[in-house]
Write a structure and sequence with these properties.
alpha+beta; Jelly Rolls; 6-stranded antiparallel sheet; globular
Length: 158
Amino acid sequence: MAISGTVKTLIKQCDKLKFYKALQYLQATNLNEMFKQVSDDTPLVVEIDQKSIFAIFQSYETKELSEAKMEGHRKYIDIQYIHSGVEQILVSPLSRIIKDAPYDEEKDLFFPKVADYSNIRLSAGMGCILYPEDLHAPCISIDAPSHVEKIVIKVAVD
């Protein structure tokens, strides 16, 4: 089940040490300085705890709902945090898959089709935790395209 809210809310919901390390990284890091190293073409990847926790700093324009593409992961849980801008993330449980897709083990990624979805709206300072059972389509505009700076922290499934 996806969890969304401010970083403080997410910390209250998480009792696993790995989540705590990831969320503490968000609180302790000067995100403005980190985003100076990021462009729309060049994300920045930072290891937090070797390969078990790492952050991907991204900068992009949100896309139209018609361009949404559900994705899923098996090896990692996503913590998606909006530093600036606003977007919606479409979310659907695995049980709503109507057409499965091949899984790319190296990228930990697959793109199934789903029957339906709900959405999470995130603005600056908010984030969500998406488990492997939470298929999701991120980077979707709400009313109009928005420039977004987002950190996706990948936390390995135990």
